[in-house]
Design goal:
The protein is mainly alpha-helical and 616 residues long. The chain is 66% helix and 1% strand. Helix 2 runs antiparallel to helix 3, helix 11 packs across helix 25 and helix 24 packs antiparallel against helix 26.
């Protein structure tokens, strides 16, 4: 990226952000008690949201929420002055590392009951009936029966999948495989319209990671879009509006493991095992109104040669004068020499297609094999949709199977690259490890999100929301969660941190509210998960401090604030249609298969009313 970062509206409005941030903790005074639980159970989550607004950071809000929650647990167990200091140590040891890497007995202060022992036992992986019970004066350094040091297999499988898939992507990019795929697309770009459509289709093809999508599509198509007089603002918008929605919807991407890991452990409230998380994720896809409609919007704009608002001004400027960015603009640039393909070597599409194909086939085969094995009536099921859904429900180790599939894909990539002599073994391994440089923040968010979930469970956050559920209209819950996710994501610039704050605490609430709603408990859980995932991506799209928004500006060579200003009206229109014609009618009981085409038709009509032809 450029050495001089653009001035963000969030940085210029720091007093306003701090004022908004100060309001969130005061919400506790407006909420009633629910049985023995008070609204203080929400304090860590509200503190994290408040800190996100105040600092516009991603890791710090989650870390602050975890520390505050552990401090509250120590305070409840009799510690007073030493609670904040003790919480620093125990937050890292028991809640961050103990929920992500290993499980171990905790050394804890004296407790007045068994609440603290309960949360430690849960974080160690024990079931409720097997907890070590603490008396009124006992020291809670007990370990549940049969539990000692061990590994958190689910979390490690998620981390392994993300690392291996990123390594495979970096390798096939460096070996020229993705460039080979892109060159297959580029030959069809012979006009401004076809160039825009090729850019969109290439964005769909690079479905496995949003960062890879942004850099590959933007860098590949920029020379061609310049030649065809497509503005840099339009290129940045196409890149940004396909990267996160495609990766967020894809059944095989670096996103899916993270998304599933945030809500899967809470599925017990609707009678499902955590292993059903992948099947539940697939059920949310039709309810991802914002992502689906965003992709429809991009396809429509690219095909129609029509625009509105600031984007229309930018496109007419480029079409009439050839100026792909406005006079006085400060285009950003992205350079990543260690992952660029060697231009002296052939760019072969099969270098990318074979490893990706092997990964996809491995996922399908492993899922089918385990699902069939655990499905009693598999011989008569055939390929019926209900049978396929039961097969997915029978998959017990989805994250582990995804990890194995990604390992197979990486192994195939190494064999292909070395077999074709595109890279030496040291160069190939260097390419694999170069992909890990961007993962620091993502791994930190993963660790802290799992820790936040354990803290909220210990404080009874889910139980409090469950008791408050009768006061929340089922019609408004998905809308409210969508809007809250939008606000948090806009403030932090991170969709992942937003998911980490909200997903662990909404399943209980959604299941209870849904019991008396037309959707039912399971239906409400599915739509609420979809609403949080969608709202997180919308806020990320509109935020000028978002990593993918910045990266899209850099990959397209666009002025960053010009990209933000031209993209925001499109994102807001799509969000409004998704909210009013998607989440609202479906929450009222309308079938998603009726609401989705109706929302798509409304979006198309609204776009035609607002837009004008570029050539006019």
């Amino acid at each position: 990226m450029s050495s001089e970062a653009p001035r963000s509206p969030l940085s210029s409005g720091r007093p306003l952000r701090w004022a908004i941030a100060a309001l969130f903790p005061f919400l506790l005074f407006l909420l009633p008690n629910a049985g023995e639980l008070g609204p203080s159970a929400l304090l860590p989550a509200l503190f994290a949201i408040s800190l996100a607004f105040a600092t516009a950071r991603t890791l710090l809000p989650l870390a602050g929420g975890v520390w505050l929650g552990v401090t509250m647990l120590f305070w409840q167990d009799g510690e007073r002055a030493a609670a904040p200091l003790l919480a620093l140590v125990e937050s890292i040891r028991t809640f961050v590392l103990g929920n992500s890497v290993y499980r171990a007995p905790a050394t804890l202060p004296a407790c007045s009951g068994d609440s603290w022992c309960e949360i430690v036992a849960r974080s160690a992986g024990a079931e409720q009936p097997e907890l070590a019970r603490c008396g009124a004066d006992a020291v809670c350094d007990l370990v549940p029966a049969g539990l000692g040091y061990g590994v958190q297999s689910f979390q490690l499988a998620v981390l392994g999948f993300v690392f291996v898939l990123i390594g495979m992507v970096a390798l096939v990019v460096r070996a020229g495989g993705i460039a080979g795929v892109a060159e297959r697309f580029v030959v069809f770009a012979r006009s401004a319209r076809s160039t825009r459509l090729v850019t969109f289709l290439l964005g769909l093809a690079v479905f496995f990671d949003d960062y890879a999508n942004t850099l590959i599509v933007g860098g590949t198509m920029r020379p061609l879009t310049d030649r065809m007089r497509v503005s840099r603002e339009k290129l940045a918008w196409i890149v940004d509006s396909t990267a996160a929605p495609v990766a967020g919807l894809s059944v095989l991407s670096t996103w899916v493991a993270f998304e599933v890991s945030q809500f899967a452990p809470q599925l017990g409230v609707v009678g499902l095992e955590p292993s059903a998380g992948y099947a539940v994720f697939l059920q949310t896809i039709p309810y991802r109104f914002y992502c689906l409609l965003s992709l429809l919007m991009v396809a429509t704009v690219c095909f129609s040669s029509r625009d509105f608002g600031p984007m229309l001004v930018a496109e007419r400027r480029a079409h009439r004068t050839g100026a792909v960015f406005r006079p006085g603009a400060r285009p950003m640039s992205a350079s990543s020499t260690d992952t660029e393909p060697d231009h002296n070597k052939p760019h072969l599409a099969r270098v990318a297609l074979l490893p990706i194909g092997a990964t996809v086939v491995s996922v399908l085969w492993l899922f089918w094999n385990q699902g069939e094995h655990n499905h009693a009536d598999h011989l008569s099921g055939g390929l019926a949709f209900a049978h396929l859904r039961e097969i997915l429900g029978g998959v017990e180790d989805n994250t582990y199977l995804l990890f194995l599939s990604s390992c197979i894909g990486l192994a195939v990539a190494l064999v292909v690259v070395l077999g074709l002599r595109l890279l030496s073994l040291p160069a190939a391994l260097a390419a694999v490890f170069s992909g890990y440089r961007t993962l620091g923040t993502a791994v930190g968010i993963l660790f802290l999100a799992w820790a936040m979930a354990a803290v909220c469970k210990g404080l009874g956050t889910g139980e409090y929301l469950k008791l408050m559920a009768p006061h929340i209209p089922g019609l408004l819950l998905p809308l409210g969660l969508f809007l809250i996710a939008c606000v948090i994501s806009f403030a932090t610039g991170s969709s992942w941190s937003t998911m980490g704050i909200l997903l662990p605490i909404i399943v209980d609430l959604a299941a209870t509210v849904g019991a008396d709603a037309p959707l039912g408990s399971m239906g409400m859980v599915v739509i609420c998960i979809g609403a949080v995932l969608d709202g997180s991506i919308f806020g990320d799209h509109c935020s000028p401090i978002s990593d993918t928004t910045l990266l899209s500006s850099a990959a397209a060579g666009s002025d960053h604030m010009d990209h933000v200003k031209t993209q925001a009206p499109y994102a807001i229109v799509v969000m409004s249609v998704a909210l009013l014609l998607g989440y609202l009618p479906v929450s009222a009981g309308l079938s998603v298969w009726l609401a989705l085409p109706a929302a798509a038709l409304a979006l198309l009509l609204l776009f035609m009313l607002l837009s004008r032809r570029i050539e006019a």
